[in-house]
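Journal club side-thread
Mid-discussion, someone asked how the predicted structure for our own chain would compare to the paper's figures. Pasting it here so we can look after the session.
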Amino acid sequence: MARALDLVGDRWSLLIIRDAMDGARSFTDFQHRTGVARNILTDRLRRLVDHGILGRETAISGRRQIYVLTEAGRDLFTVIVAMRQWGERNTFADGEAHSALVDRNGHSLAQLRPTNLHGDRVDVNSTTVRRNT
């Protein structure tokens, strides 16, 4: 987990990844959506590209670079969904308005719940970390 947090664990990187999943592509898109300072955004985008989370492509116009999620970036979808769901449950007052992630048909997503390979739900009390040597 420490290695993953080194790559994507800071606030701005997670917000950039979230916004890339929500359709942001250009530097300006990310800056408007996150409100992050230009120098910090430049650094985070560079790091996410260097670590293979985002890729850079030339826009159709041919005049600017855009950022796209790589396979590794798309693999973070479950992490982003889990963070959104946790935030929706734990950071808003009852009745407070907030955005919600829905599928293409407008349906809410099921709450993510870890299961073992047999489909049984697991939680912090029924799991342990096995160290491979």
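Post-session note: Helices lie at 2-8, 11-21, 27-34, 38-50, 71-74, 77-90.
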